[in-house]
Amino acid sequence: MASLQDQLLKAGLTTKQKARQANSDKRKTSKQKRSGVKVDASLQEQVKQELALAKQEKLARDSALNLEKKQALLAKEQQLRILQILQHHQITKVNGEAEYNYTFNNIIKKLFVDAVTHKALVNGRLALCGMDETTYIVTAETAEKVASLDKNVILVQNTKVADEVTSEDDPYAEFQIPDDLMW
Predict the structure, then answer these.
(1) Residues 124, 125, 130, 131: what is their CA dihedral angle, to the nearest 10 degrees?
(2) Which of 10, 17, 116, 117 could form a disulfide with 94 if both were Cys (CB 3.0 to 4.6 A apart)?
(3) What is the 3-state secondary structure (H, E, C) of 79-137?
(4) Which residues are within 8 A (CB) of 15 and not within 5 positions of it... i.e. 6 or more apart?
(5) Structural domains in the chain (count)
(6) Coil, helix or strand for 139?
(7) CA distances, 41 to each of 38, 46, 47, 144, 146 (Å)
């Protein structure tokens, strides 16, 4: 007479793969019994729970690592975007004899510009931005756009000063500030 397993296979109630798996499990448990290892259902359940817990912890670590990578990528993209804006909108050919002093990374630096550029920097129509040890002269609108992305890039952005209009009550109205008095 055929075994129960053969009868189930003939009836189509199981597959050869499931039969092999059942035989394999049966051999493993009998070998563990012969070697003196007790197969405890509670022990197996505890191992399953520990594996599930370890899997959840790994998923949590992986998601945290992915979030950090995304944030680093976004920060890098933002820095590249700012650099592209500064390089595209920078004002060049402003070399002159007027000296303009500013601080960059806690170091006082000098920039030699022409008189028109110097006056525009002082009045707030132009601004200085610094990135990667490079200084860029840009318009005030460009500086505002860059400041909306990262305020630390702006080195000098003066508030707009109206043309020097003297009031009648000013006691020093007749004394003009010398042109060579520049900082």
Answers:
(1) 140
(2) 117
(3) HHHHHHHHHHHCCCCCCCCEEEEEEECCEEEEEEECHHHHHHHHHCCEEEEEECCEEEE
(4) 9
(5) 1
(6) strand
(7) 10, 9, 10, 68, 64
